[in-house]
Amino acid sequence: MPERLTEMLMDTWTPLIILWITLLPSIYMAPMNQSQILPSGSSTELKRLTEEQRVLNRSKRGWVWNQMFVLEEFSGPEPILVGRLHTDLDPGSSKIKYILSGDGAGTIFVINDKTGDIHAMKRLDREEKAEYTLTAQAVDRDTNKPLEPPSEFIIKVQDINDNAPEFVDGPYHATVPEMSVVGTFVTKVTATDADDPVYGNSAKLVYSILEGQPYFSIEPHTAIIKTALPNMDREAKEEYFVVIQAKDMGGHMGGLSGTTTVTITLTDVNDNPPKFAQSLYHFSVMEDVALGEPIGRVKANDLDIGENAKSSYDIIEGDGMDIFEITTDVQTQDGIIRVRKPLDFETKKSYTLKVEAANVHIDPRFISGGPFKDTATVKIVVEDADEPPVFSSPTYLLEVHENAAINSVIGQVTAHDPDVSSSPIRFSIDRHTDLERQFNINAEDGKITLATPLDRETNMWHNITIVATETRNHSQVSRVPVAIKVLDVNDNAPEFASEHEAFLCENGKPGQVIQIVSAIDKDDPKNGHYFLYSLLPEMVNNPNFTIKKNEDNTLSILAKHSGFSRQKQEVYLLPIIISDSGNPPMSSTSTLTIRVCGCSSDGIVQSCNAEAYVLPIGLSMGALIAILACIILLLVIVVLFVTLRRHKNEPLIIKDDEDVRENIIRYDDEGGGEEDTEAFDIATLQNPDGINGFLPRKDIKPDLQFMPRQGLAPVPNGVDVDEFINVRLHEADNDPTAPPYDSIQIYGYEGRGSVAGSLSSLESSASDSDQNFDYLSEWGPRFKRLGELYSVGESDKET
Fold first, then answer.
1. Could you tell me if 592 and 573 are in contact, meaning their C-beta atoms sit under 8 angstroms apart?
2. Is residue 29 very low, low, confident or very high in pLDDT (cuts 50, 70, 90)?
3. Per residue in 163-195, is it b (16+ CB within 10 Å) or e — as a string?
């Protein structure tokens, strides 16, 4: 305890001693022409020298202040004396007044205006403000006139060790690879101290490890953390918690300290090989498993993580290397065993494989530690499954002649049950592939028979599907395609390739080829077609024509003489027998039509009709017909044109000049309503002839002349409206002089029994002033109001 107290006292008073030593040169070694900070009064010699310099030299100010020092964090019962200001102009008569201004003047620092003593009134902190700049001036106390110019000086706050080191960026996290050598760099930490780094050792820091040894070390001055133990294994311990201390005063006793934590994580390296959890694996699989299906998984564990734990699997030995394959699951790092080829329990019941797992990424630094791979044995047992029947061939090709007899056997399919139980098989035809039911199959032995006749010329190929089903388990079904080819037999006679019609010129020469014909045969012999042509036996000595077989299997028709005439015989018929070379041979008779025609000197056919013989030379019948058609067309156009012009110039209805029904009469005066008949005289629109009901027409001439009808005058209480309309309609329908177009019929009669009479102003002959609207009051309130409005309107007009 006494040692600790002594150390604290030394830390406190050491700056004061240093301050006093610092002030001595400024107090006692200042130039003689300057004012000084004096602990007591000045000597006579100094005054004499000052007066001599005042006489010999130009006038200067009598005092200049140096910097002062004050200790931070000092607190006591009374303000601390910082220093004293004094000028040699002060005779001691208290006529000089000292004034202080600047940073903290009057608040932090206070000056005695008589003695010049400066006191610090508050506790100072160097970390908040390290120095203060102030200005001092001596003035006359009575007049406040400055005796000398103001002088500026600085008060510096002396530092003490009152701030502990701090790790601003802490706590820290760092990583280092596992298995690193001693001295491998991990990270660097940094602490800061708010004390003055220039004055004393208050900010001189030293670093050390409080926790984390012996795994890590730290450089005392650089704060670099390094590994201290070799071969630290992440798989044994992955994370370390290290406590770092920073201490000021160079690490000596009495210094302040701060701590931080560093979490150091070992990163993984590939220093561990994969290892199978077991050396032997057993799996079982059904023989009918689909190709590519997984049958089991194996796992090689790796203590490493990430990329260093990735492994690849392979089958390196075994009797099923071509039957099975193994792949890697990228998510779980498992080895998945799959089937590559079909399994057969009856052929092989078990397989033995040797599987290897190897690391994908190998670190060369640790390759000497041994192979980074492991092996395991896998035994696979194949279990029996109820398999569908198996055909003896994957496809069948059968041949049958098209003249094969019904129910004849055209082929056979066979199948068997591969299971040990060997169930019997039943065969059938998928009728979706034999819609016409042309074939049948024996359900027991699989023999295919013919159900309907075949025709190669209609369908040369038939593709059907045979179904084999186990009798014990109908769900076990197999299918096989069967292609049936229909073979050709000579059952079609040859015939002309097309309907030929030959043309013979009247001026033809003997031996001239009239026509070359060809034949076709629907059959398809192996050696190709060869046709024989001949005339009917009774036509062998035909006096007009003969035939000649060509090398290209065609036939030429030749004329025996010249001088054929259309007037004598226009058409000749020549029957020709065509035979093939099949077995048995087939033949048919086709007739060739030969027409006699008129030809030009070059042999070009011009006309083959007998009546065309009398036409003038050089002008054919077609040309005459074309000319006649043009003439008729022109005549029709002229007649239509004249008719249209006549109808356009002459009106259909004869009317007088006074008929203004077609005229347009314009007026701009608006009428007063339905009863306003004075605004416009409608009588000008009436046709005088129309009043009598007769309008003579000029476009037709009636067979019977009717007398003009007397128009019915619009009598308000004459006949019924329905009867009136029917009469007019009957007259219009039976009048041949009535206009065929729509016309306006004016009916001024409103019907029998109407109290109001006609509501139209077109036939009204009375003026508005003659009308009485009193009868409207009998129709109801609304019509009564309407009558009053019209009555008021009439009264206003009279007024």
1. yes
2. very low
3. bbbebeeeebebebbbbbeeeeebbebebebbb
Instruction: Give dist(CA 268, CA 203) in Å, integer.
Output: 40
Rounded to whole angstroms, what are the CA distances from 156 to 13, 130, 150, 205, 350? 17, 6, 20, 24, 97
- pLDDT tens for 253-273 read 878 889 999 999 999 998 889
Sheet holding 216-218, edge to edge: 185-188, 224-227, 216-218
- What distance separates the 2 farthest-apart alpha carbons in the chain? 187
Q: How far is residue 79's CA from residue 81's CA, in Å, rounded to a whole number?
A: 7
Q: Could you read off the pLDDT of 140-187 as tens digits, one per residue?
A: 888 888 888 888 888 887 777 777 898 988 899 999 999 999 999 999
178 within 8 A of 234, measured Cβ to Cβ: yes
User: Whole-angstrom Cα distance, residue 710 to residue 613?
Assistant: 73
Pairing state between β 257-267 and 239-247? antiparallel
Question: What is the chain's mean pLDDT, rounded?
Answer: 77
Residue 354 is given by DSSP the state E
Residues 424-474 have pLDDT tens digits of 999 999 999 999 999 999 999 999 999 999 988 889 899 999 999 999 888
User: Residue 147 CB: number of other CB atoms within 10 A?
Assistant: 18
**Which position has the token pair 């279990």?**
383
For residue 242, give the amino acid letter: V
d(CA 652, CA 149): 135
- pTM recorded for the entire structure: 0.43
- 421 to 18, 77, 138, 446: CA distances (angstroms): 115, 118, 133, 21
